[in-house]
Amino acid sequence: MLYRLLHVVARPTGLALWRPDVVGAERVPLDGPVILASNHLSFADSVVIPLTAPRQVSFLAKADYFTGSGPKGWLSRTWFTAIGSIPVDRDNTRAAQESLDLALEHLRGGGAFGIYPEGTRSRDGRLYKGRTGVAWLALTAGCPVVPVALSGTDKIQPVGAKFPRITKFRVEFGTPIDFTGRFDGVPAGRARREATDEIMAAIHAMSGQELAGEYNQRRPDHPSV
């Protein structure tokens, strides 16, 4: 119900305000499990992708966003529930595997799941090496991966800005990548690495970002999951 309201009211309002360039939305399968794997430039990315995708896309979100009190807590809880976010306790010692397990459950239910293989947003605009959780999900769930390239979203709400800004951004949805049967007999670790690198190469081909050639590290003050 909340998502329908968001889709009918907030989506057209947001698109009218920001007027983003959206390319390839028709490439996203409209039903069945699918992973949308994107580069990550801003906290706003988890709003931008659901805003421009042709179907509901769920992301992981800190459990704290669902438990706050007062008007701010209500607004946070309502928003993240409306966009279909999946709460996860990041302080749990098993947080990484728990996150993947929750995402896998969502995919097995036929949902679309959004993930940032870099792990955390890029603060210098470069594209960092992908972590293999995205490939584990794709290979375990047996679902396609749609690479997504964002640009300009870092200008929507720069670090330190209290409110979002009206500025142009671009979202490109790439051709779905299907790994079905491609890694039969290949050692699991190697399969995950090769699949992840292929996904990141597809993102890079669309985004044109400089390659960092290393993993990005999450800072303690990073607000996203």
TrEMBL record:
SUPFAM superfamilies: Glycerol-3-phosphate (1)-acyltransferase. One of its GO terms (cellular component) is plasma membrane. Residues 34-153 form the Phospholipid/glycerol acyltransferase domain. One of its GO terms (biological process) is phosphatidic acid biosynthetic process. GO terms for molecular function: 1-acylglycerol-3-phosphate O-acyltransferase activity. Pfam families: Acyltransferase. InterPro entries: Plipid/glycerol_acylTrfase. Keywords: Acyltransferase, Transferase. This is 1-acyl-sn-glycerol-3-phosphate acyltransferase. It comes from Ornithinicoccus hortensis.
